[in-house]
Amino acid sequence: MEIIMSVLAGLLFTAGVYMMLQKQILKIVIGTALLSHGAHLFIITMGKLNRGKPPILAEDVTNYADPLPQALILTSIVISFGVTSFLLVLAYRAYQTNGTDNMEKLRGNDHE
Amino acid sequence: MLHAAVLLPFLAAFFIPFIYRGVKQVHLGWFVLAVPILLFGYFLTFINGVLKGVHTLKTFEWIPSLGVNVTFFIDGLGLFFALLITGIGSLVVLYSIYYLSKAEKLGHFYVYLLLFMGAMLGVVLSDNLFVLYTFWELTSISSFLLIGYWYQREKSTSGALKSMVITVFGGLAMLGGFLLMSDITGTTSIRGIIENADLIVNSPLFTFILILVLLGAFTKSAQFPFHTWLPDAMEAPTPVSAFLHSATMVKAGIYLVARLSLVFAGTDLFFLIVSGFGLLTLCWGSYMAVRKTDLKAILAYSTISQLGMIMAMLGFGTKAAILAAVFHILNHATFKGSLFMVAGIIDHETGTRDIRRLGGLFTFMPITATLALIGTFSMAGFPLPILNGFLSKEMFFKSSLHFEHASPIVEAVSPFFPYFAVGGSIFTFIYSVMIFFRTFTGKQRDTLEKQPHEAPIGMLISPMILVALVVIIAIIPDTFGHLLLAPMVDSVTNLVVDPHIKFWHGLYNPELYMSLAVLIFGTLLYMTRTKWVRIYDVLPGKMSAAKVFDALMNGMVKGSEKVTNIYMTGSLRHYLVYILTFFIALLAITMSVTGGFTLSFDDLAPIALPEVMIAVVMAVAAFGTIFMNNRIAAILVLGIVGYGLSLLFVFFRAPDLALTQLIVETVTVALFLLCFYHLPDLDKEKSSSGTKVVNWVISISVGVIVTLIGIASHSTKMFEPISDYFIKNSYKLGGGDNIVNVILVDFRGLDTMLEILVLGLAAIGIFTMIKLRPGKKGGNE
Questions:
Q1: Both B415 and B553 in a single domain?
Q2: Chain B residue closest in CA terms to A104
Q3: Per-residue pLDDT at B449
Q4: Domain ranges for chain A
Q5: B679–A49: do the CB atoms touch at under 8 Å?
Q6: From the centroid of its chain, how far is CA B771?
Q7: Is the CB of residue B77 less than 8 Å from the CB of residue B104?
Q8: Dihedral sign for Cα atoms in the order B255, B260, B262, B267
Q9: How much is the pLDDT for A110?
Q10: Are residues B412 and B561 located together in one domain of the fold?
Q11: B576 and B545 in one domain?
Q12: Contact in structure between B643 and A35 (CB atoms under 8 Å)
């Protein structure tokens, strides 16, 4: 299962990177969202999948899923949510101010 | 006491601005004058000791842990240069009092000049390599400041920049050489290095060290091809040119070569480089000087060629050659210093230095003309017993004929040396004669801005003293030889010489005929100069070092601009491509080189159908976003990936994650949908097929690398996870059943706090971005 999940994380990275290489800001934001999904999947795969019960203490259970990656991912989800929403509004403002959402047109002068 | 002496100019430089502000009636130079005179008197007291072979050594601990101590050391060589610096320094300060009016920024001038004087004393008296280097760069900096003294003029600033670039380039190379030398010998003291000269000469890095150190000496002493900064440095006030660019700073390189000759001399490489470049500089400098029409430019090229001559003699390395070299250092300082001052007087009294506009000044300025006559003829080496230049030139000829150390290379090249020596001297003769005759004889021009007249007596004192020295040295050379030159030769070669300098060597000496040849050919060529002057269109033509330097500088600026423009395109995509390419290359290379990829099926969870199905759906949805041309569709498909992930979290026993992911995904999708009305519709991808291929190659490589790393790192679990601790202590220490939540708020609460901060910042950022509209209504609503 871990191998399949690694492949899936790789696929999410592929799609995310491809989107980030596009010109439109919205596509780039979507790319970052895909990338963070891939990263989260990657982290949880690095623990052990499907071994033991959910990490909530209960009577008679000795085998729990690894709680540490879960805590890390939880933090990461929130942060990536904050960044994604910030980027989204940034894209909105950039489009409103400049009248374009094409990164190639937002390049600025030659000497920057 | 010795430390105080070197410190004195710096101390005086510190107080100069206060005096300048406070005392307005008296010319500032009078206060400054006391410093070099005091020092000159102080250094005179060492002569007795040095004659007896007593070398004064004073140490002040500076950075003992690195072996860098301010150690000053007085032997023949150091003492001679110290006397030269303070002596000529006194005369130059005296001259500058009359040369610069009180309307100039005198405070700046004398501060820079005193800094230079102190730095130069530091260079010649230091025993520590790195202290020497420190003072060396300080002379470069103060010279830079002095050349750019009239900073409103463009030529001054460009000349200052050029001299800075070239001398600092050499200085840095020299530092490299010094570091290697101190590394090999294990000492930073010059005396220590001389004692361990064998280690350096036999080290495999010898060639490298020699070239680095000589780069420093050659750039500072304006040797070919680094001489190009010196003519441009003539934009400095004339007292500066006389002091720095003829008598003292340009001799720092000479000093360095002389000081280290006990280390390097005797090797073929040193002989070839130093004599070869010295002779080349001698010939090229004197050849170029003939073409110039500006008095100071002629003197600048003349300085270059004379320095080349001294350098060549240091390279010859025989006892006679070293004696001739040190003698010529003294002579050159006297006559060149006086000639610069004469040039300054002419400039001051007529308003021009261009010899095409000057002429017939003898009747107006008889004293100046007499001074110039003696100075130029001494420089030319005219055979009169009252001209010291002739004595040292004959010694130069003589030393170019005899070489002591025998090796095949020396024997192969040395027969050519006398011809170069005579050739360079012929041109020296021509420009020296030209300076005098074209300025002071011939027709008087009426185009001059001022009515020419004799200079004030104060201005004439310094050149008079120098010219008097020219004559005195020529009449009693042996006295100077015993007092100054013999101890110097002793410090350069460790040999005792008999400094008996004769005017007349008898009829059967080749140097006599060489001098006669110079005299005859020089006169002939001077008479016929209009006929052959066109040769200058051919030889310097496009090849002058100044043009090479300019082309190099321009080329570097343009080249770096081009290189920068190639990769700094301003396109986000390009930068991402660079970053990702390096990511891929570094990881792929590391993995394949270290054999980092491993695959083990030992510890895998069983494959379950629902999870695989979700994975397939997620993969399809992820790639779907790429091909969606409808923005709502793209957003919804992105949502599928997120919800799929939260389903996976459910399967993987992570209830909190599933919950959070579900909510966050919902909010994100809602946010996208809220925004989408304001965003433009997605374009169909219009990139060229080449770009597409690049994008695909890069993104697929990234995916493959990530997959490989995931598999490899899962297959090599190096140690047990620390999660057992959390599981065991969640209730006992944290008081909670939900282990993930206890980790978040208890075990690793700091992460959570900062994550809250991130969210808060994002919220504030979003708020300000929407609310604040600079450009509309003055900044906010």
A1: no
A2: B571
A3: 66
A4: 2-52+64-102
A5: no
A6: 53
A7: no
A8: negative
A9: 52
A10: no
A11: no
A12: no
Query: Residue B345 and residue B365: Cα distance in Å, rounded?
Result: 10
- The residue that leads in pLDDT, B693 or B719, is B693
> Is B777 a residue whose pLDDT tops 70?
no
> What percent of chain B lies above the pLDDT cut of 90?
30
Q: What is the pLDDT of residue B687?
A: 64
Residue B778: is its pLDDT beyond 50? no
**Pair (B649, B669) in one structural domain:** yes
Tens-digit pLDDT profile for residues B205-251: 888 999 999 999 999 998 988 888 998 888 889 999 889 888 788 99
Averaged pLDDT of chain A = 85
Q: Which of residues 64-93 of A touch B (CB under 8 A)?
A: 64-68, 70-71, 73-75, 77-79, 81-86, 88-93
Residue B273 lies in a domain: no
The DSSP symbol for B226 reads G
Report if residue B39 sits inside a domain: no
Q: Is residue B425 part of a domain?
A: yes
The token pair at B407 is: 């090796």
The domain boundary residue, chosen from B699, B719, B739: B719
Which chain B residue shows the shortest CA-CA distance from A99?
B680
Chain B nearest-CA distance from A94, in A, is 10
B257, two tokens? 């070569």
Q: Looking at residue B609, which CATH number applies to its domain?
A: 1.20.120
pTM to 2 decimals? 0.82
Pair (B561, B414) in one structural domain: no
DSSP assigned state of B405: S
Helix (H, G, I), strand (E, B) or coil at B253: helix
* Total count of domains within chain B: 4
Is B732 within the bounds of a domain? yes
CB count in 10 Å sphere of residue B242:
33
B770: left (phi over 0), alpha (psi -120 to 50) or beta: alpha
Give ∠ CA B117-B122-B127 in degrees, rounded to 5.
160
From the options 1.10.3720.10, 1.10.10.10, 1.20.1260.10, 1.10.287.3510, give the CATH code of A2-52+64-102. Answer: 1.10.287.3510
> Which among B689, B719, B749 is the end of a domain?
B719
Same structural domain, B711 and B767: no
What number is the ipTM of this complex?
0.93
Chain A residues with CB-CB distance to B645 below 8 A? 37, 40-41
In the predicted model, is pLDDT for residue B587 greater than 50? yes
Dihedral sign, CA of B237, B238, B240, B241? positive
Contact list, A64 vs chain B (CB under 8 Å): 723, 727, 739
| CB nearest A2 (choices: B571, B604, B695) | B604
**Do B315 and B429 have their domain in common?**
yes
Contact check, Cβ <8 Å, B743/A2 = no
Strand, helix or coil at B399?
A: helix
Joined tokens for residue B472: 């005195």
Q: Which domain holds residue B547?
A: 536-568
Helix (H) or strand (E) holding B481: none
